[in-house]
Amino acid sequence: MSEIQTWIDIQASPARIWAMLINFAHYSEWNPSIVAAAGVARPGQRLSLTLAKKPGRTRTLRATVLEARAGEALVWRHRSLLPGLLDTEHCFTFAPLDDGAVRLSHSAHVSGLLAPLLRRPLARPTRERLETMNSALRERAERHNLPRQP
């Protein structure tokens, strides 16, 4: 599994999606894949990301922000054990669509000595986590577009 690429179209502005994506303190309110997060979306900054694993189990990892361009791209990398053993980069990129929506691309690139051994076992659950997060982000962003009821 060297790279898994997913995307989703979201009927919201890039600014709204960006604000939700970098508001790590509120991930627990909407994100079923990353159930807790802390940090600042600024290159070089460290993030703490708690992933939902099996029911009732989580795993916390540390990541470093590599790129953060408002409404354009967010990239972070986490390393398992030692650098070069199993490194994963998560990349979110924004592409405005003609209808005012945004196509959010969300990918995970895995590299390192263990990557070839884990390609098959990790591919399906990783894709499912990315797609689950994408759907939850779309639901939250689009829900905020609805007019308020009196």
UniProtKB/TrEMBL annotation:
InterPro entries from the UniProt entry: Polyketide_cyclase/dehydratase, START-like_dom_sf
Biological source species: Alcanivorax quisquiliarum
Name of the protein: SRPBCC domain-containing protein
SUPFAM superfamilies: Bet v1-like
Top-level taxon of the source organism: Bacteria
Pfam families documented for this protein: Polyketide_cyc2
